[in-house]
Amino acid sequence: MLSVRTAPLTLRQCSRYCSPSFARRTFAQAVKMSSISEAIKKDHRELEQYYNEVINNQGDHDYQERYGNQFVWELARHSVGEELVVYPAFEKYLGSKGKEMAESDRKDHHVVKEMLKTFQNLKPSDPDYVSKLKELWAPLSEHIKEEEERDLPTLEQKLQEVEGESASMARSFGRTKAFVTSRSHPSAGEHPPFETAMGLLAAPIDHIADLFRKFPDNTVSPNPSTK
Q1: How far, in Å, CA of 204 to CA of 208, rounded?
Q2: In CA terms, which of 3, 4, 25, 93 is 20 to 30 Å from 87?
Q3: How many angstroms separate the Cα of 169 from the Cα of each of 4, 158, 173, 211, 223?
């Protein structure tokens, strides 16, 4: 039987409550990616895994709740991380084409965030739980495909002109995800700095509420203090 796990800790909380070695290892893993594309794709594969765990275990509400919470937690953080780190890089390095790419991706994110907001308020016992997740996954999977086949290769080609820039972005992406909201907040928008300000207000509330949610006991993210 899976044990109840509590929520992911912030960097400051982890440094206070975790052993020093675990804190270093946990956050080193989050920022160790050699390129921003590698970091983004890693998140994508994890989202696919969490989605499939929910879809393929219908009837086991406890299991679905844990992986549903993990899916929400990862997607919310991933989306904001891209909006604060990756999409500004599109605009910076790719000119007018990058601005078009960034705006297109932001629109995709807003649609997904609205759907995620609905899903995150459901329970596995709700009749629409699985169907709402499937509805969300349809545009999200298409967005993931476009990012991996079009956006990221274009960005990486340009980043090769600046030594170490892709790895630096990957580290920034990992650090950013440690502090942003862990639930969907479409009203915050997808453009910094307003999104950043709104996120700083909402993130502590999300993180406190996460303490009372169930997560899978074999994931890195929830409750590292128990390791």
Answers
A1: 6
A2: 25
A3: 34, 13, 6, 29, 26
Token pair of 6 as six digits = 């509590």
**Alpha-carbon dihedral sign for residues 41, 191, 186, 175:** positive
> 182-205, pLDDT tens digit by residue?
999 988 878 876 666 676 778 889
Name the residue among 5, 2, 3, 10 with its Cα closest to residue 206.
10
Ordered by start, the domain boundaries in the chain are 11-226
Residue 38 vs residues 30, 32, 46, 139, 157: alpha-carbon distances, Å: 12, 10, 12, 22, 14
Task: Kindly report, residue by residue over 127-171, the tens digit of the pLDDT.
Answer: 999 999 999 999 999 999 999 999 999 999 999 998 999 999 999
Q: Bin 126: left if φ > 0, else alpha if -120 < ψ < 50, else beta.
A: beta
CA–CA gap between residue 5 and residue 218 (Å, rounded): 9
Give the predicted TM-score (pTM) of the model: 0.81
